[in-house]
Structure formats: structure tokens, C-alpha cells
Design brief:
single chain; 589 residues; alpha/beta; Gyrase A, domain 2; 4-stranded antiparallel β-sheet
């Protein structure tokens, strides 16, 4: 279904041409003065220079053509040369009826050229609990994936686990000190290893920080961990079996925590999955003359003409031959290209890693790991800060576990729900879980991803203002009205969305009509905050209409039925939007 702005622009362009001017001057935008009009065209200002006449003359001529067009209720020229436009209530109602008839997509067509887009948006380390630093990557990436799927693209999410490197050696070393009799440490053991892991997730989460602390104070311990890392990476069977156990236990726990955030991944790959691709990749870089030795390390130059700042070479191997994050990320690109042939790979990571990814992307292109047809996108996000303006911490100053943050928000929501209503505890807890998730996700996603923001629990859990709970409360209010209507009567078969009777009804209809254009833009710009802005405006427009209009008390049966149809469309638009943001609405609040 054609976007409303495109339809209006086409009509104004045609009027420009009919008036004797180039149609390209007829591009229309939303009005920046909604008190004066709904849409505007400023093209006459630019056309005046080309046609050497006053802009008002052009605008007035075009307005006289548009005044005969049934799409517009108002088309007027305003000095010095603006075109102010307002839609006909009949045309707007017809457009919404088409949206309604489209059913599940509300007129938002799927792309005609679907792409395969792989998103890297997890990045947790195994054997460590998720903390608040993992929040933004998870929910921004999940939302972009959902928006892309809605638009018809093949979206593939990869958690990209940190399951390689010294941390694995540290865990193995500490486990060996605590349980030296385990069969995994017998060098000559040739049998099958136990299927059950020799530790629980709680033990594993305690082992890593203990080992990390020891390695900073005990040089011999650190050397042992480095040796264990080397042996693991060079195929020692017992250590490989332990790595399998670490992954099994960690991934089960990670999945549980991500599920609590309504975040999922199509791929649970890790750095270890890229290791088999490294030798051939490195050898090819050498043979093709891209990789060379510098101060003992193997590097690839990635600086380019026109760089305004120094871009250091991309290091491929350390002087001792060990791989780095760069190596792993490049090898990961290799297997992603081989297995998925993506049109684009998006990395949802901290914006402070921009230089690093500039090096990796340039290296991948220069060495031919990706062709010019494959897009590599760095989507850097800002910091989640506390009220002090510094990165969010616990009261004790530590990094908060993500599950504690989630449970704290849920507890706050339960308290607010209980204070407002007498609720059954089980239902109240379940509602608090749903609404709490909206508070977290909307609180984050309503900010432009690249910007830092303040995580304010009190504000995010409020039922008023630009918050998730406010959006859900609006949806629940609509559900309540629809249920009340259905309990009283059936919708007449001839019921339809009618032309607006009031300014507030028309304002609501105008907001609904922006849905398909907004969704396209949100995906093109990878901008979930545009979805949030849309549903906040839509919720405000609905609530203004609701407070001004007797819906259940309306005496005219067909007018009332038209209101009910309009509410159903509003609810659908809101629900589709919160769906791509990654949360849902309860039945009651």
C-alpha cells in the first residue's frame, strides 16, 4: 500500500507540472506547524530562483490546481511561498479503511527485494553472568532484527559468544587446583569423558572471578593459565571436553536470561567456531601480499588516503603466533560469508569500539573476505548511565547482574500495580513481569542508539509520560473499551471507519496513517527509536480523542461502530509496534 506522504507528494508534483513548473519541486513533508496545516510543500521557494518569479506566485498557482483535488480539504498558498495542505476527512477515512482491510500488516508491504542480514548483537562471555553492559546490544539488536523480519528480510541473529582465549585457560587452571583428580587432567586418558559437567552454573560463575583475581597476584598461576589456554587451542582432548561442558552449562543459563528479556538468536556461535578458518585465512593474506611482519606481529595496513586521523594496521597474529579478537572477528566473517552469503552484516556494539571495527572492516574488504556487494555496518550504541551521569552501577559500585536489574524493575512495577488496584498476587506478578519488560525496553529503545542515556527506574516505570507502561496502559484501555462494547452489542455488518467528526479524531487518524512510512524508515535507518516516537504520538492522539469523545455513550449506532473500528485499528498499530520492539501488552493493568 502506497505511503500517505508519497501519495500527497505525487499529487503536488502533478499540480506543479500542470502549473508549468518542474514536478520535482512538489515534494511534501509533514507540517512543522500542525496548528496551521497537516502537510507542507516548500518547493516554490526553490523554484522561484529557477523561474525568476516570486515564490508566492508559484505557490498560489499550484494551490489553485490542488483546490480542485478531492484528496485535500485545504490547499492554500501562504507568503512568502509555502503551500499548506490538509487532507479531506473522506479521503483519510478511506485510506484507513484500506489499512484495516490489509489485516495483519496495515498496508505496510514487504520488500520486493529481500536481503539476508546477519546481526551480531550478543557478545556475552561464557562462564560469566550477563550484566547491565549486555542490555543495549541485546535489545537494540533484537528490535532491528524484528523490524527487518516484518519488512520481509531474512534476518539472522548471532549471539557471538566469547568462548576462547585466556578466560578458558583460567577456568581450567582453577578447576585443576580444586579438583585435580578429574579425568580431564590425565594427559594419556583415551576413553570417553563424562556426559555430566563437573560443575554447576553457580560454581562456574564463582570460579572465573577467583581465577582472574589469582592471576593478577600470582605470576606462576598466570603462566599455568596461559599454558592451559595454549593446550586447549591446540587440541588437548581433556581441555576440549571441559570447554564443551563450560559451553553447555553457560549457554543454558544465557538462554534463560535472554528469554527473560524476550531476546532470541538464530545462531549460538562463538569465537571457537571461527578457529578452524584462521589458518587458511592467514595463509591467503600472506600469499596475496597483504599481511607482513611488523615488530614481530603479523599485520595488514588499513589506512586510506583521505583519513583525517591515524588508523593503525590491523594485527592478525601476535609475535608468538597467537590469534587476537581481530583474527577471530575476521575468521567469523569468513564462515558467515561461506554459510550465509549475507548482503549485510550489522554489528550492534559499544560505540567506543568504532576504531576497532573500522580496522576489521577495512581489512576484510582489502583482503577480499567480503566483496563490494556486501555491506558491513557498525551500529555503535551509547552508554547506559545512572542518575550520576556515570555508567550504571550497583549501590556498592559494582557492575549489576542483568537478572537483578530485571527483577528490581519487576518488583517496582508490582508495587505500583498493587498500590493502584487490589489484584490477585499471581496475576499481579505476571502483569508486573510484562509491564516491567516494557519499562526496560522502551526506556532504552526510545533513545537514539548512538546516544548515552540515563537509566531512571522511577521515570521508566511511570504510567505517565514517554514510557513503556504508558504505552501499555493505552493499549489496555482500548482493550477494555472494545470488551465493554462487545458485551453490549455486536458490530453492525455495515460498520466502517467514518470521516472524522472532530479535530481530535482526525489527529488520531492522521497518526495511524503514518504507520507504513514509519516502519520502512525505521528499518532503513536501523532506528527503533522512530518506532517509539510513533507509538508515543499515536498513544497521545488516542488518549486526547478518548477524553474528548463519548465512545460507549454515543447514541448514533453507526457513529459508535465507526469509533470501535477506529479503536481496533489503533490497537493493531500499537501492538504491531511493541511487537517489533520486543514486548507485549497484558490484558489488564
Amino acid at each position: 500500500m502506497e505511503k500517505m506522504l508519497d501519495i500527497i507528494s505525487r499529487e503536488v508534483m502533478a499540480a506543479m507540472e500542470a502549473s508549468g513548473y518542474d514536478g520535482t519541486y512538489g515534494k511534501v513533508t509533514l507540517s512543522n506547524r500542525p496548528d496551521l496545516c497537516e502537510y507542507q510543500c516548500n518547493g516554490a521557494m526553490a523554484a522561484a530562483k529557477a523561474y525568476k518569479c516570486a515564490p508566492f506566485q508559484i505557490a498560489d498557482k499550484v494551490a489553485s490546481v490542488l483546490q480542485k483535488n478531492s484528496i485535500f480539504a485545504k490547499a492554500e498558498a501562504v507568503k512568502p511561498g509555502f503551500l499548506n495542505l490538509s487532507l479531506s476527512p473522506d479521503y483519510l477515512a478511506g485510506y484507513l479503511r484500506q489499512m484495516e482491510a490489509d489485516g495483519e500488516r496495515l498496508g505496510c508491504g514487504k520488500t520486493g527485494s529481500p536481503k539476508t542480514v546477519l546481526i551480531d548483537y550478543g557478545g556475552p562471555n561464557v562462564a560469566k553472568p550477563l550484566h547491565v553492559g549486555h542490555l543495549r546490544s541485546a535489545i537494540i539488536g533484537e528490535s532491528i532484527k524484528r523490524i527487518g523480519k516484518f519488512m520481509g528480510h531474512n534476518m539472522v541473529g548471532d549471539v557471538h559468544l566469547g568462548d576462547w582465549g585466556l578466560q578458558m585457560g583460567l577456568i581450567i587452571t582453577e578447576l585443576k587446583e580444586r579438583k585435580p583428580g578429574l579425568v580431564y587432567f590425565e594427559e594419556n586418558y583415551g576413553g570417553e569423558y563424562p556426559k555430566e559437567p563437573p560443575f554447576t552454573i553457580s560454581e562456574l560463575e564463582e570460579i572465573y572471578p577467583a581465577a582472574s583475581g589469582k592471576s593478577k597476584e600470582d605470576e606462576a598461576y598466570k603462566e599455568a593459565a596461559m599454558e592451559a589456554t595454549y593446550e586447549l587451542q591446540h587440541g588437548r582432548r581433556g581441555y576440549q571436553a571441559l570447554l564443551g561442558h563450560i559451553l553447555d552449562v553457560s549457554v543454558s543459563d544465557l538462554k534463560r536470561n535472554y528469554e527473560n528479556l524476550n531476546v532470541s538468536f538464530e545462531l549460538w556461535k562463538g569465537e571457537s567456531d571461527a578457529q578452524p578458518y584462521i589458518p587458511a585465512m592467514v595463509e591467503k593474506m600472506k600469499q596475496d601480499g597483504f599481511a607482513y611482519i611488523s615488530e614481530g606481529a603479523l599485520v595488514v595496513d588499513v589506512k586510506e588516503e583521505g583519513d583525517t586521523k591515524e588508523i593503525p594496521p590491523c594485527m592478525i597474529l601476535k609475535s608468538d603466533g597467537a590469534s587476537l579478537y581481530n583474527t577471530t572477528d575476521l575468521a567469523t566473517i569468513v564462515w558467515r560469508m561461506e554459510d550465509y552469503h549475507p548482503d549485510e552484516i550489522i554489528y550492534v556494539v559499544d560505540k567506543r569500539q568504532e576504531l576497532y571495527f573500522t580496522q576489521v572492516f577495512r581489512c576484510a574488504r582489502k583482503t577480499g573476505l567480503v566483496g563490494p556487494e556486501t555491506k558491513l555496518t557498525f551500529l555503535g550504541f551509547g552508554t547506559m548511565n545512572g542518575k550520576d551521569g556515570k555508567p550504571f552501577k550497583t549501590r556498592e559500585g559494582g557492575v549489576m547482574r542483568l537478572e537483578y536489574l530485571v527483577s528490581g524493575i519487576q518488583e517496582e512495577m508490582y508495587k505500583k500495580i498493587s498500590d493502584n488496584h487490589t489484584v490477585d498476587e499471581e496475576e499481579g506478578r505476571e502483569t508486573a513481569k510484562v509491564v516491567g519488560l516494557s519499562a526496560i525496553k522502551y526506556g532504552d529503545l526510545s533513545n537514539q542508539a548512538s546516544k548515552d542515556y540515563m537509566f531512571d527506574i522511577e521515570r521508566f516505570t511511570s504510567f505517565e509520560g514517554n514510557t513503556g507502561p504508558y504505552i501499555l496502559y493505552t493499549i489496555v484501555r482500548i482493550k477494555s473499551i472494545l470488551k465493554k462494547y462487545q458485551a453490549q452489542r455486536e458490530l453492525p455488518p455495515q460498520a466502517e471507519i467514518l470521516p472524522a467528526h472532530t479535530d481530535s479524531e482526525k489527529a488520531l487518524m492522521l497518526e495511524i496513517s503514518k504507520f507504513n512510512g514509519m516502519m520502512e524508515t525505521a528499518f532503513e535507518e536501523k532506528a527503533p527509536h522512530k518506532v517509539c516516537a510513533y507509538i508515543y504520538d499515536l498513544a497521545n492522539a488516542f488518549n486526547h480523542f478518548y477524553h474528548e469523545t463519548k465512545i460507549i455513550g454515543e447514541q448514533d449506532e453507526m457513529v459508535q461502530a465507526g469509533y470501535i473500528k477506529l479503536l481496533g485499528l489503533t490497537k493493531k498499530a500499537l501492538e504491531l509496534c511493541i511487537g517489533v520492539l520486543g514486548f507485549e501488552a497484558p490484558e489488564r493493568m
